[in-house]
Amino acid sequence: MKRCRKSRTARTSGTARSVTTGRQVLVAQACLVGGLALALLVKELPGLMREVRIYRMTGGLRANRRYP
């Protein structure tokens, strides 16, 4: 008994349609979310650097007794 394999492209009315798989959609969504997260990080980087500088000037974790 022979098993027939279905082709990946749909053949309807003589035109070939491209088939987008679920994996391709997930990869595209992951790229989009990653790009947005990277853009947000780049935008907020100066503010984060300022906060780290202030934290280091106040003594960090060792300043428990000085700053209640």
Polypeptide structure, described:
The chain has 68 residues and is mostly helical. Helix content is 53%, strand content 9%. It has one helix at 22-57, and strands spanning 10-12, 15-17. It has a two-stranded antiparallel sheet with strand order 1-2. Strand 1 (10-12) and strand 2 form a beta hairpin. The relative contact order is 0.06. The model has no long low-confidence stretch (mean pLDDT 82).
Q: What distance lies between the first and last C-alpha atoms, to the nearest angstrom?
A: 81 Å
**How are helices and strands ordered from N to C?**
EEH
- The shape is elongated
**Major sheet:** 2 strands, antiparallel
- Count of alpha and pi helical runs: 1
Helix content: 40-55%
Poorly predicted spans? none
Content-based structural category: mainly alpha
The tally of beta strands, per DSSP, is: 2
Mean pLDDT score, rounded?
A: 82
- Proportion of residues in β-strands: 5-15%
Task: Jot down its keywords.
mainly alpha, two-stranded antiparallel sheet, 53% helix, elongated
Secondary structure elements and their pairing?
Blueprint: E1 10-12, E2 15-17, H1 22-57
Antiparallel strand pairs: 1-2
Summarize, please.
The chain has one helix and two strands, in the order E-E-H. The protein has 68 residues and is mainly alpha-helical. The chain starts with 9 loop residues before the first strand and ends in an 11-residue tail after the last helix.
